[in-house]
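Form 12-C: Joint structure prediction
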Amino acid sequence: MDAQRNGSTVFFSGILDEHTTAEALRKTMMEAMHSVQGRRLSLDLSEVRRANSVGILTWFRLLGDLAPCASYVNMPVWLVEQFNFSEGIRGDIDIESFQAPFYCPEKDTHAIVSLVVGRDVPIQAQYDDFEISLPNPDGTVFEADFEPSEYLYFLVVNHAKLKSLREG
Amino acid sequence: MKLVALLPQNLALCETLRRQVEGHMVTFVACADVEAFRREAHETLEPLLLFTEETELQALTERDVHGPLAVFVTTAVPEFLGALPSGTHARHFLALRNGKPDENELAALVRRLVRPLVPAMAGPHDWLHAYGAFSSNVTPTLEQRVTSLEEKALALSRLRETVLSPAATPSKDVRASEYARKAVEIVDELILNAVFAANPRMQGLRRGHPFVLPHEEAVVVKWRREDNFLGLSVSDPFGGLRFPTLLSHLNAGALKGDVAFKASAGLGLRMAFDRSHALFVDVDTGTRTEVVAFLHLEKTSREFDKRLRSLSFCGGEA
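Section 2 - Result
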């Protein structure tokens, strides 16, 4: 996995696996943390195609060591899935936006769409009755191709964690 | 041998099981309650293979069951494993969807459990053939031996191509890409476990360590796709995986707490389980461990995620 900084955002690309070393990412992350001078850093992993357990542990441990004040932007589906079955988001890291699968039954088409937390998806205590759909210009509709109560669970957990962290 | 169905609440399931053993030289017996099963177990000299439901499991004691015990579950397997009665012989957990098991999974498991007890079925069990959806032999099983990081990358690349190949439109490419990712993630984890956890020479090495394995330690990756069914198999020549280890990694409590401090092997097994619909672990102790994953490549992600998962641990006896 490669990392490149652009302003306050670090863009990652490639595959997060055993070839990813913490040393390679640490330098870019530290430069980015230094440059934002206390403001929130954005972490964009949308160009990371997939990860394995070795890479995920490397990533989580790096974030644990550096403890950045950061936000995930365009969080990819694989990372959402990861956070939904493990308690992986450590420290003061929130979620600004994340990707989710959508499906249009009329046209039998699929799409991965980035959703902004607070605008497209409000923070809620649970998402059992949550519904979201995206209209197409031709009048057809993309339906959420995920079970909201399960796919959005990571938002519930992370919000509770941040609330507890900030309330001290 | 006898296959005993202790499924008093589900006669349709009894019938499904009875059909599965037809032609396998297996006697089928349906018991109306636990007492009837105890009498059957007491009176028969033949090996017994018991299929029951989770509601009946609590009433069965360690002393009641001596042969393989399969449980049809409607609870998610990690939660079910977390509440498994101590000392139970249950090793096979087949998900029921709308009261029915997946007949492909059931066919593969019954054939595997029956095989050692039926002389006519001698020889190794081919999971990618026994799974019902693959029995037509229309598509070949593909294979890649892995003895190095380069061969691991090649296996994952070839597998990805297999899953992507039938995608006809750009839209379906999105879905195919997601399924290809899941398949690659499953096999990646299983190879890592086969190389760095199963192989005694490699245990303790960092998982990113470059490796070159001798031929006899090669990991064998097989996969097969037919229509919307995908089967994945990864085997090592060591046969060291134990049921308690599997249980400790896959039960609902295994990932509580900070995942950064978890072992990669456990996280990897859980990732493989979560991304597949059925995970079969087949251990010939000291000789071979094969982990097989089956996926239904559903039309939507929602349908894919909705299916309850099945888990089975075969063999592994000392």
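Section 3 - Comments
The radius of gyration of chain B is 20 Å. The CA atoms of residues 179 and 277 of chain B lie 12 Å apart.
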